[in-house]
Amino acid sequence: MRKLVSCVAVATAALALASIASAQTATPMMVAAAQAPAPAQPAAPPPPPPPVIAAPPMAANVTRAAAYNAAPTQYIVANPTNIYSNHFIYGSTVTGELARGARVEALAKVQGYEWLLVGRNGQGIGYVPISMLSPANLYIP
Question: How many whole angstroms separate alpha carbon 2 and alpha carbon 86?
Fold first, then answer.
């Protein structure tokens, strides 16, 4: 009887080890299923384009761009920069300068370009590259 009990115990232990081993061994189909990419989610629709606005009044030496969008935020000058008569550096004349830390009256963003039309008392005095500015709420003096 004692031999029978020990044989049953050994057989039970062997079955337990076999089931553990088989649970840890993955078949190629299981590996492929685990590596399969998740089904693609439908892409979110792109945000609507910013509205086109009418050009504000301009100083005599400032060139009008083809179209303008509303300025996305208020800006402060992060790096000293020139103010240009056009939204291209080449062929533009410098109409003024902006010092670091100066608040900018952003009248409009040039549509399709990373340039702002800046002004004084609502009149466009020239263009500044947005890369030289910081959103006012993120500016660190």
Answer: 101
